[in-house]
Design a protein that fits this description.
Strand content: 5-15%
Structural class: alpha+beta
Strand order of the largest sheet: 4-2-1-3-5
Order of helices and strands: EHEHEHHHEEHH
Number of helices: 7
Number of strands: 5
Distance between the termini: 87 Å
Mean pLDDT: 86
Largest sheet: 5 strands, mixed
CATH superfamily: Ribosomal protein L30/L7
Shape: globular
CATH topology: Ribosomal Protein L30, Chain: A
CATH class: Alpha Beta
Number of domains: 1
CATH architecture: 2-Layer Sandwich
Length: 190
């Protein structure tokens, strides 16, 4: 008998962020989180969408947020948070030694599976800060579909990572300056 053939899904890069901490976790879930390189809260890791990884992601779905990675988020993570051995930052010179023009160039090749993180000799985990102004919505114990943070977020995971990595502020709006005629002092005088 032949195995059932699955329809080939297009290859994608998934970014995983551990949202919850280490207290009261079952051993098998803790082991799975460690295999995904998510040893601490606010750790970020990148995997592809192979069935092996998807099974592990589904097992730890109550402790992580995940979704599809885009190039701009990856280039920001690499430039600010990638660490080599001895906890040294990855620099543009290091990329040029490895035959990549820039962080953006590597990000394009990585998302299209033409390069791997191991090509840069960096650690597989990005240690991020908690998001500025908190996780918002319903918090870290509720699924994304119900207003929380946990579980699959699709492409919206990139905005969460951007706030955790300091790439942008959540809800950031363009500041527009008021003309001098509209300042508080001129309004009070009228």
């Amino acid at each position: 008998m032949a195995k059932k053939e699955r329809a080939q899904e297009p290859k994608k890069r998934l970014v995983l962020v551990r949202v919850r901490g280490e207290v009261h976790i079952k051993k098998d879930i803790a082991d799975t989180l460690e295999m995904l390189h998510l040893k601490r809260a606010n750790a970020c890791s990148i995997v592809d969408n192979r069935p092996e990884y998807l099974g592990m992601v589904k097992k730890v779905k109550d402790y992580i947020a995940w979704g599809e990675l885009d190039e701009s988020t990856l280039s920001g993570l690499l430039s600010k948070w990638a660490r080599k051995a001895a906890d040294k930052r990855l620099s543009a010179e290091d990329l040029k030694k490895k035959k990549f023009a820039s962080f953006e160039d590597f990000a394009k090749k990585f998302v299209t599976f033409d390069a791997e993180l191991s090509d840069l000799d960096i650690k597989p985990t990005f240690r991020l800060h908690p998001p500025t102004k908190g996780f918002a919505r319903a918090g870290i114990k509720v699924a994304y579909t119900q207003g929380g943070v946990l579980g699959y977020q699709g492409a919206k995971i990139n905005s969460l990572i951007a706030t955790m990595a300091g790439l942008k502020e959540r809800g950031q709006k363009k500041k527009t300056s008021k003309p001098k005629s509209q300042t508080k002092e001129t309004v009070k005088k009228q």
